[in-house]
UniProtKB/TrEMBL annotation:
InterPro entries: HAD-like_hydrolase_sf (IPR050155), HAD-like_sf (IPR036412), HAD-SF_hydro_IA (IPR006439), HAD_sf (IPR023214), PGP-like_dom2 (IPR023198). One of its GO terms (molecular function) is phosphoglycolate phosphatase activity. GO terms for cellular component: cytosol. GO terms for biological process: DNA repair. It comes from the Bacteria. It holds the Pfam family Hydrolase. Its EC number is 3.1.3.18. This is phosphoglycolate phosphatase. Pathway: Organic acid metabolism; glycolate biosynthesis; glycolate from 2-phosphoglycolate: step 1/1. The lineage of its organism: Bacteria, Pseudomonadati, Pseudomonadota, Betaproteobacteria, Burkholderiales. It is an enzyme of class 3 (hydrolase). It comes from Roseateles saccharophilus (Pseudomonas saccharophila). It catalyses: 2-phosphoglycolate + H2O = glycolate + phosphate. NCBIfam families: HAD-SF-IA-v1.
């Protein structure tokens, strides 16, 4: 864990982009098409982080429905609604665009998200952030989803770096657990959707504003 940080991996929802309103809109559009009741934004906000399949499972559980065929239909309609209007998926958090611009001058940046890659790329492009990233690694299969380390390891291989040279930045427990499983350091952001961890590991940073990441990186482990 003491290797210099040479690249930074970012989660998407709740870390780079405040997408709760857009995710709720896409979910409710899919539910309405199936004749089902929708949910308020605060409820949906609490379901974000584990990918659209988990989001839909939570919605169906709340509706007391257990139907694999319905879940598959909702997923198709959710994806279609997201791709139809990716700009509605939210705005970058204040300070994120400036952070990415500054960091991308000195090291490669990647996205590691439980959102499927096509949806993630569409949202990043609509938010004006896609050009900052060397690659976008989305969870296109269940096995890839964080807290599994597979996406971080995939990102490291594509950058020709050891996983220990990456820093994983995210707002949820899955981000921190994936980083630990991959053997890289992590930073938890307080502005996202995930609840504050009960206790951060000594090598995990807490960030209360995007600009704090630059200051952190300039201290003990400079980027090479």
């Amino acid at each position: 864990m003491s290797a210099p940080i040479r690249a930074v991996a970012f989660d998407l929802d709740g870390t780079l982009v405040d997408s709760a309103a857009g995710v709720a809109q896409a979910l409710n559009t899919a539910l309405a098409a199936a004749g089902l009741a929708g949910f308020e934004r605060p409820t949906v906000r609490g379901w974000i982080g584990d990918g659209p399949d988990a989001l839909i499972r939570r919605a169906l559980r709340a509706l007391q429905r257990d139907d694999a065929g319905l879940a598959a239909r909702l997923r198709r309609d959710f994806d279609a609604a997201t791709l139809q209007d990716p700009a509605a998926q939210g705005e970058p958090y204040a300070g994120v665009a400036a952070l990415l611009h500054a960091l991308s001058q000195s090291c490669p940046l990647v996205v590691v998200t439980n959102k499927p890659t096509p949806l993630a790329r569409a949202v990043l492009k609509a938010a004006g952030l896609l050009g900052h990233f060397a690659a976008v690694h989305g969870a296109d299969t269940p096995a890839q989803r964080k807290p599994a380390p597979l996406l971080i390891e995939q990102a490291a291989r594509r950058l020709d770096l050891p996983a220990a040279a990456l820093l994983m930045v995210g707002d949820g427990p899955a981000d921190l657990l994936a980083a630990r499983a991959a053997g890289c350091r992590a930073a938890w952001v307080s502005w996202g959707y995930g609840a504050a961890p009960a206790g951060l590991a000594t090598d995990t940073w807490r960030l209360d504003a995007p600009r704090e990441l630059i200051a952190r990186l300039q201290q003990p482990a400079p980027i090479h």
